[in-house]
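pinging the channel bc i need a second pair of eyes. not urgent but kinda urgent?? the chain im working w is below, pasted from the shared doc
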Amino acid sequence: DGQHYCEELIILAERNPKPVACRFTFTPLAGTTEVAIRLRLIESQNIKAIARMNDGSYLMTQRHITVTAGGCGM
């Protein structure tokens, strides 16, 4: 049917003890690929979002997050 959509969205916090922060899967029935998350970060780092599309392609973006007090040790 030619519909282009995100099948899987993975959020990575590479410097955390468990780098895969969360993983979501979607179908065309979802209507939109939109999520909200909260992360506990051990230190300042880049957070990456990787989207696997239904045609096999991947999209990635990242953002540097500055941590003033590490959440993992509190």
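so The radius of gyration is 14 Å. and The mean pLDDT is 89. — does that match what u expected or am i reading it wrong
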